[in-house]
Design a protein that fits this description.
Length: 347
C-alpha cells in the first residue's frame, strides 16, 4: 500500500463549461478547479520498496552507468535524458543500431504518481518491473538479466553499494529493480508559474493563461484525461491518432474495441520541453496538438467518446497554448537540478 500523498492529485473535471474568450470574465468555477491542482507534500513510495538514501543513490548510479548494456554504450539515461525533461527529444526512441523503436521515449517526470499499468500500452505492472525489458532487449541495452547480475557482482564497489542499500552484498534482480525505481521516484518537476498561481500568486501567470486554464477544465474538456496535479488520469484512451498495426492497450485487451488504439495519458508537466508529441512522435508541436484535438482526430468507433471537434477560435487556441506554457520550469540545465527535489518522507 503506497504512502498517502498530501493532496488529491487526480480529480475528473466536467466537460460542459463557459468559454473563456478574450473580453469575458473568468469562469465562475475557476476557484474550485484550482483546488484540484495543489501540489502534494511528499513522494509516494510503496511499502514493499520504501525510500532510503542509500538505495536511491545506488539507483542513481545504476541509471547513468552503461555497465547495464551489453557493449557498454547505453544506459537508462541514453533515452531518459535530464536536459530533455527525462525523454530523448526524438519522435521514436533510437535502437542500439540507430534505427527507430515502435514508440517514443516517455518522460520519467513525476513517475511516482503513475499508478500501475506503466508504458504507452500498459505492459508494466509496477515501476520496479520496467527495467528488465529494455535491459535485455537486443535492440536496446542487449544485456540479459543474469549477465547483468554477474557483471555487477564482479565489481567490488557495486557489492559495497548493494550491501549498504540492502544490508547484504547479494546482488539480485529484485534489488536492482528496487534501487532503480527508488531513484526514479525522486525525479520530480520543480515549481512552475502555474504552481505559484495555484498557491495564490495571482501575477504568476497572465490573463491569456488563466483563460486557457478555464478552457482546459471547461469547454475544451482537456482535464477529463489530464487531471489533477500530475495532469494525467493514469488511463488509456483512443484520441484518434493510432492506425494500422500501431496497437495500444488493445494489444493486451484484444477483446475491447475501445482499447485498440488506446495509449496512456501522459503527464503535461514540462510539456513545452517534450516535443514531438503522442506515443509515436507524429505531432511536431503543441500548436499542432491543439489543432488535432480541435478537429477531433480520426473519427472511428474506438475513438474515446470524449474526443470530438471543439470548434475553438484562434484566440482560444492561443489561450490554451499560453496555459500549457505555464506548466514548465526553466529550460535546459535547471531541469537537471530541480528534478532531484528530495521530497522523500522522513526516516
Amino acid at each position: 500500500m503506497a504512502w498517502k500523498v498530501g493532496a488529491a492529485v487526480a480529480v475528473l473535471l466536467g466537460f460542459v463549461g463557459v468559454s473563456g474568450g478574450v473580453g469575458s470574465g473568468p469562469d465562475p468555477r475557476r476557484a474550485g478547479w484550482r483546488d484540484a491542482y495543489r501540489a502534494p507534500t511528499e513522494i509516494p513510495f510503496p511499502a514493499e520498496n520504501p525510500y532510503t538514501a542509500a538505495k536511491a543513490e545506488l539507483g542513481r548510479r545504476l541509471f547513468f552507468d552503461p555497465i547495464l548494456s551489453g557493449d557498454g554504450t547505453r544506459a537508462c539515461a541514453t533515452c531518459h535524458i535530464p536536459d530533455l525533461a527525462w525523454g530523448d527529444g526524438r519522435a521514436r526512441a533510437a535502437t542500439r543500431q540507430q534505427g527507430d523503436m515502435d514508440l517514443r521515449t516517455p518522460t520519467l517526470l513525476n513517475i511516482a504518481w503513475q499508478d500501475g499499468s506503466l508504458g504507452w500500452d500498459g505492459k508494466f505492472r509496477t515501476l520496479e518491473s520496467v527495467a528488465a525489458m529494455p535491459m535485455a532487449a537486443p535492440g536496446n541495452m542487449n544485456l540479459p538479466m543474469p549477465d547483468a547480475l554477474t557483471r555487477l557482482s564482479s565489481d567490488p564497489s557495486y557489492a559495497a553499494a548493494f550491501a549498504e542499500a540492502f544490508a547484504d552484498p547479494a546482488i539480485t534482480r529484485e534489488r536492482l529493480e528496487a534501487a532503480l525505481a527508488t531513484f526514479q521516484r525522486l525525479i520530480v518537476t520543480g515549481t512552475t508559474p502555474f504552481d505559484r498561481w495555484i498557491a495564490g500568486q495571482e501575477d504568476a501567470i497572465g490573463e491569456p493563461a488563466k483563460r486557457g486554464f478555464d478552457l482546459f477544465n471547461g469547454r475544451a474538456g482537456c482535464a477529463s484525461c489530464h487531471s489533477g496535479w500530475s495532469f494525467t488520469d493514469n488511463s488509456f484512451h483512443d484520441i484518434g491518432v493510432g492506425v494500422g498495426p500501431d496497437i495500444g492497450r488493445g494489444r493486451y485487451k484484444p477483446t475491447s474495441l475501445a482499447l485498440q488504439y488506446a495509449f496512456k495519458t501522459p503527464t503535461l508537466r514540462e510539456i513545452g520541453q517534450r516535443g514531438p508529441y503522442m506515443h509515436d512522435g507524429s505531432v511536431p508541436t503543441l500548436s499542432a496538438v491543439i489543432d488535432l484535438y480541435n478537429r477531433g482526430g480520426i473519427d472511428r468507433p474506438s475513438r474515446s467518446r470524449s474526443i470530438k471537434p471543439l470548434q475553438l477560435t484562434a484566440a482560444e487556441r492561443a489561450d490554451l497554448l499560453a496555459f500549457l506554457a505555464t506548466l514548465s520550469t526553466s529550460a535546459g540545465r535547471d531541469l537537471v537540478t530541480i528534478s532531484f527535489a528530495a521530497k522523500a518522507p522522513a526516516p
